[in-house]
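Long-time lurker. I teach an intro course on protein structure, and each term I like to show students one example going from raw sequence to a predicted 3D structure in token notation. This year I'd like something fresh instead of my usual example. Would anyone be willing to generate the tokens for the chain below so I can use it in lecture? Attribution to the forum is fine with me.
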Amino acid sequence: MKVLCLGGAGKICREAAYDLVEFSDFQQITIGDYNGKAGREVVKWLNDPRVDFKKVDVNNKKETVRLMRQYDIVMDGTTISLNKRSTACIAEAGCHGINLNGFGEEYQYDQKFKKHGKTHVPGFGMTPGMTNMMVKYAADQLEIVEIVRISHGAFRPIAFSAAITETTTYEYDPGLPGRVVYENGKFIQVPPFARPREIELPGPYGTHPQYIIPHAETKTVAQYLAKKGVKLIEVRGTWPPKNMQLIKALYDWGFMRNDKVKVRGVKVGILDTIGSYLMQAPEGQTTDLYGYALHVEVIGIQNGKKVQHILTHTHPASDGSVKGWEKLRAYTRCVGIPMAIGTQMIASGKVKVKGVIIPELAFDPSEVFRELKKRQIFIHEMVKEL
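-- Reply from a regular --
Happy to contribute to a lecture. Here you go:
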């Protein structure tokens, strides 16, 4: 079996490739990226005879499809803005696919994947991804599901990569139509910083105010729980306090609109300019605490009683006490590892459904949790009667 790690030179996708080297039986693991220098550095870092590099530009569809046809599956770590083009290439090439973001562009290619008898799972990192599995695990124990609240804390620098900078600006775009909650059978659009709620994350991350974010789980969980009577689905998130302070100020002052302004006679997007600054400034490249923290609440009826399931996750500390989890890697490994696990499950034939499918219909949470445990990532569940 052969896998193409698209965007494999990126800081998250390279961690997924690292996991494939450590745990998979792929015969060929190709780092595919537009950045040749960074891609070859990843090959050297992985130091495995199965790993090689191929330059890929998804804007050149013909050449990208030609390359992808040599592989069984594409593990797509590209940015949100590229996912439509990358998925179009994967569908045309006739191989399996999986990606991190899952913001919806992928589903238009459902029939092409079905035609080839292949599977594509959009949105399988930490969130979306592990949060979907945590909801499914709890919901499958309930006869009726009333409320689902998904929350996460992503503790990483605000602009450690172009993809992360893009994610930040995308999620807090004032006009974004995808920022919705599911309430009483309807998807309701809300503005940035809507519905604040204090969420207690597992240590060392603590309690933080969280706000509604535009993540795929709102819609995929609604689809999965359509027959269980769910009335409310909310997805929230937060970043380090300093990051949130900056984003809130930028939003309040209109910077998030990215209006064009003149600087010495040249028109530039004001948010583009700030993003470029953060990509080059030490303040954009570091943070006080690194890692990822998930918190999922599912309320419903179990054995005739109203109960609350709280699921959280923990991973090795970022303080250097566990090799391989130092600082930023505590964040990037958390995001990349689930995509690698999903890649292995699809390639090994464990996912029987064909077409573009939501994570809830693709994977067994218990199996995913067992694989996470092998990587020192643990899922915790607490159940309480209400």
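Some talking points for your students: The chain has a mean pLDDT of 95. Residues 182 and 222 are 7 Å apart (CA to CA).
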